Amino acid sequence: MQSHQPKIGILALTDYAGNLKKAGYQQLHRKVFRFEEIIWITTDNVRTNYVLIEAENSRQGLLNMSMSSILNELPPYFVRISNAYIINILHVDFKGIINSSVIVVKGESLNISPTYRAKVQETLAKYFLL
Questions:
Q1: Is residue 40 part of a domain?
Q2: For residue 2, is it within any domain?
Q3: Residue 103: CA atoms inside 13 Å, Cβ hemisphere, count?
Q4: How many domains, in total, are found in the chain?
Q5: What does pTM read for this prediction?
Q6: Per-residue model confidence as pLDDT tens digits over 39-84
Q7: Helix and strand totals (H; E) in the chain
Q8: Is the pLDDT of residue 87 over 80?
Q9: Is residue 103 domain-resident?
C-alpha cells in the first residue's frame, strides 16, 4: 500500500496555456513555488479560470484552477480573505490585521470580506496568540 505524501508546493505555469503553446518547447513552461515562499494567491487581473501566485522576490506564476479548488489543496495556514485573495499568514510579509476587516500583507491593505471574517479569525487563532 502506498502512503500519501504531502505536497510541498505548486508547479505553476509561466504564462497562459495558449501563449505557452505558441512559444514552443525551448521555453520553461512551469516553475516551482514552495508553499512557504508564496505570499498570496489571487484572481485579480487574471483571466477567468486562472489564479495568480505571488511569491517572494516578485516571482509570479499562473494556475488553471478555481480559488475553491486550490484552497482545498493548500496547507491550513493559507486562508481565504475574499473572493479574490488567499493569504499565507505564516509568510514574513504578513504584517497584521486592522479591526478584523483589513489584512496587511506586503505593504498592501486588503479587505477581508464579511463572508470570510470568522474563518480568518479562526485560522489566526491557530497560529498566533490573540
A1: yes
A2: no
A3: 26
A4: 1
A5: 0.90
A6: 999 999 999 999 999 999 999 999 999 999 999 999 999 999 999 9
A7: 3, 10
A8: yes
A9: yes
Residue 70 lies in a domain: yes
Paired with 30 in beta bridges are 13
Domain CATH code at residue 111 = 2.40.50.1020
Q: What angle do CA 112, 127, 4 make, to 5 degrees?
A: 100
Q: Return the SS3 of 62.
A: strand
Distance CA 87, CA 66 (A): 15
CA separation for the pair 31, 11 (Å, rounded): 5
Cell of residue 120, nine digits: 480568518
| CB-CB neighbours of 86 under 10 Å | 22
Domain that holds residue 90: 9-127
Task: Summarize pLDDT for 4-45 with one digit per residue, the tens.
Answer: 788 999 999 988 877 777 666 656 688 999 999 999 999 999
Cell representation of residue 13:
505555469
Q: Under 8 Å CB-to-CB from 51, ≥6 apart: which residues? A: 41, 42, 43, 62, 63, 65, 66, 67, 70
